[in-house]
Amino acid sequence: METIKKGLYIVLQTLQFTLWYGSISVVAIIGLFFVFFVFANPVNDTISITNYAFGIVAVLSSISFGYSRCLEDKEVQNKIRYCGERFLHSAILFLLASIMKYFTLQDNVQSMSGDIYILSFFVSFVSVFPMALFLSSLINFIVAIRDLSSILYSMRNPSQDIRKFI
Asked: In terms of C-beta density within 10 A (0-12 exposed, 13-18 middle, 19 or more buried), how is residue 105 classed?
């Protein structure tokens, strides 16, 4: 009976760890999909994606800053505040990507770019730039969410939770 409990404990602990960190991998894959398949087409309207991402990351930044203020351990407080700063930087990059994408989708900008060679080059450059901003922001977001998850995972005692369950 003790061997079965020990095996179940190991399985549940592995499952809990995989679910805790596996969701970050899923978000990374979805984000990369949007970067390379949606932003690769410059005429595709992806402003709503960057606006939603901005809102989500801005909220995570606010939560991180608020949570860091209520902690007593200065080291953990600084780590969580740094995650909030990364989220804030990521939100700003999402906002910039949205503004640039909106600029490139305007009809008068696209019609003028065919007439003037320099403007055509500028619009082509600016239409690729949101993809780079989105990718940079996504990397920043994934690193921050991974670090925040690691901090939160280390603060709780998952093995004790599983032992209570078994």
From this structure: middle
CA distance 10 to 4: 10
The whole-number pLDDT of residue 40 equals 66
Is residue 50 within 8 A of residue 134, CB to CB? The reply is yes
> What is the C-alpha separation between 21 and 154, in angstroms, rounded?
12
Whole-number Å distance between alpha carbons of 10 and 78? 33
For residues 97 and 129, give the distance between their C-alpha atoms in angstroms, rounded to a whole number.
7
Exposed/middle/buried for residue 9 (C-beta within 10 Å: 0-12, 13-18, 19+): middle
Q: What are 36-84's pLDDT values in tens digits?
A: 776 666 667 777 877 888 899 999 999 999 999 998 889 999 999 999 9
Q: Which two tokens stand for residue 46?
A: 């992806």
pLDDT digits 0-9 by tens, 110-125: 555 555 555 566 666 6
pLDDT at site 35: 76
Report how many helices (DSSP H) and strands (DSSP E) the chain contains, helices first.
Answer: 6, 0
Classify residue 162 as exposed, middle or buried by CB count within 10 Å of its CB (0-12, 13-18, 19+). Answer: middle
| C-beta neighbour count of 132 within 10 angstroms | 14
**C-beta separation of 134 from 28 below 8 A:** no
